Amino acid sequence: MEIRLLVVEEDKSRWAGIKDFFAGKIGEDKAMFDFAATFVEAKGKLCSNTYKGVISDVFLPRESDESDIRILRAMVNADLFEDEIPYGILIGKYALMNGMAVMFIKDSYHRGGTAEICRKDDVGEFIKRIK
After folding, report:
1. Which of the residues 2, 53, 78, 91 could staple to 72 if both were Cys, CB 3.0 to 4.6 A apart?
2. What's the pLDDT score for residue 93?
């Protein structure tokens, strides 16, 4: 059974590391990855594809129309963020509402480190949900 995942990360140089990390946990022959570098690109892929899960950075470069910014302002104070805002929250909300597993990542996490927002236990739970 193939497991299709969407990875949302603006730094394309990190895509291979994320893919290798999660493919190693899922199984190289089972994991299929799509990638998006922006919120708008991720939103388009989520609307036109079916995924078992989403692996997303929380902060992405500021972009999008005012309606997305209004939704984010209702959830968090998006005015606090200048260059990057937490679009990952909207991506996660959409994914959860559509029955997908969600995993938020930070730079150090997919390079073997740990971070508050995504502990090693969270990876195990994410893998259980997508299998």
Report:
1. 78
2. 87
The contacts found for 19-22 with CB under 8 angstroms, 24 or more apart, are: 21/110, 22/55, 22/110
CA nearest neighbour of 37 among 19, 13, 21, 20:
13
> What's the CA gap between 52 and 64, in Å, rounded?
25
74: Cβ–Cβ under 8 A, 6 or more apart, which residues?
Answer: none
Total residue count of the chain as it appears in this document: 131
Q: What is the mean pLDDT of the chain?
A: 80
Which one-letter DSSP state was computed for residue 60?
A: E
- Domains defined for the chain, CATH in brackets: 3-130 (3.40.50.2300)
Alpha helices in 1-131 (DSSP H): 15-26, 39-48, 66-75, 87-97, 120-130
